[in-house]
Design goal:
The chain is α/β, with parallel strands linked by helices and 316 residues long. The protein has 6 helices and 17 strands. It has helices at residues 14-32, 34-54, 82-95, 131-141, 162-168, 300-305; strands at 2-5, 57-60, 67-73, 100-107, 109-112, 147-153, 174-180, 189-195, 199-201, 205-214, 218-226, 229-238, 241-250, 255-264, 275-283, 290-292, 313-315. A 5-stranded mixed sheet has the order 5-4-3-6-7. A 5-stranded mixed sheet has the order 9-15-14-11-12, with no helix packed on it. The relative contact order is 0.10.
Length: 316
């Protein structure tokens, strides 16, 4: 068991604190004698305890007392790193003989690959890169015992928020380390954002904004879906970086409408980031109540009705 502190720089505050306390003692000792010495000792103890507490001290279990869990990313973005990650895990397992070691892989779902940790490459799979979900699974697998989780990934998280989980929900006694593996460079396009209005009205047109990110200049095809049916598509020329495109769609029915944008390019290195969906709620036309008299009907109903509003008249 090792003693560690999270913020060692805070210990520097001890120097000015001790300097001030000794200065105040020198000034008061002639008047109060031994009382000043006792106060000095108490003040130094209190200041030291407060500053040490601010450094967040904790005890770290030694390596042999921890469960070691490897989390290997096997999503499509890790293609080409299979041998490198397998060698990393095999080397770590060989050096940790006698330790409780587990090897898990994830891409959409988490699987136990402990039996393959001797050096066989973990095969690539389809699925979201949910590092947060994998960390939750590994933390639960530690069963409340001290554990060290080592994440082998390129860090391209497509679902969840791993950093927020580590900051706020990681169980006590569990620590997380990372080993970054970069896949070989490949040409890639992705839908980085897809913006639709939150609400709209039947009969009105809406502007849909799609942002496509490209690693190199390329030609691709952009398709827009409404409720899983294609409604528009176009050939697009992409420059390196972000490229913005707009679609206009007229709402013909009320209710929730699901839109989805998909970009397709021949030779795309990563297929998982090519789609993005959004939802908008379509309401009916505005309703306006006009109160008039039977003998003197208001012409507002006819005028507003021509613009698409629903105007029931109430005569009195």
């Amino acid at each position: 068991m090792d003693f560690r502190i999270e913020h060692p720089a805070y210990l520097l505050f001890l120097l000015p604190a001790l300097g001030y306390l000794i200065w105040s003692w020198n000034r008061e000792r002639g008047r109060t004698g031994r009382t000043a010495l006792v106060l000095l000792i108490l003040r130094i103890a209190a200041a030291t305890l407060l500053i040490v507490a601010a450094t967040s001290p904790y005890f770290q279990m030694r390596a042999k007392e921890e469960k070691l869990i490897f989390l290997v990313d096997r999503s499509a973005s890790m293609e080409g790193t299979e041998e490198e990650t397998a060698a990393f895990v095999a080397d770590a397992v060989s050096k940790g003989q006698g330790r409780d070691i587990a090897v898990l892989s994830f891409a959409g779902e988490v699987t136990n690959d402990t039996q393959e940790s001797s050096g066989a490459a973990i095969s690539r799979s389809e699925g979201e890169t949910d590092i947060e979900g994998a960390l939750r699974y590994a933390s639960a697998a530690s069963a409340g015992h001290p554990a060290r989780i080592v994440v082998l990934s390129d860090g391209r998280e497509t679902m969840g928020d791993a950093l927020e989980y580590i900051r706020s929900q990681l169980p006590a006694g569990v620590t997380v380390d990372t080993a970054l593996f970069a896949a070989p460079e490949s040409e890639d396009v992705s839908v980085s954002s897809f913006t639709v209005p939150a609400t709209g009205r039947k009969g009105e047109s809406q502007q849909l904004e799609v942002t496509v990110r490209a690693t190199d200049s390329a030609t691709a095809r952009l398709v827009l879906f409404r409720n899983d049916r294609p409604i528009a598509e176009r050939n697009i020329d992409l420059a390196v970086g972000e490229n913005k495109f707009s679609f206009i769609d007229v709402q013909s029915a009320e209710g929730l409408v699901k839109y989805e944008a998909q970009v397709m390019m021949e030779g795309d290195g990563i297929q998982e980031n090519n789609r993005m969906a959004a939802v908008t709620e379509i309401e009916g036309p505005p309703r306006i109540l006009i109160a008039d008299t039977a003998g003197n009907p208001s012409p507002l109903g006819n005028l507003i009705g021509k613009s698409g509003g629903h105007c029931p008249n109430h005569s009195c």
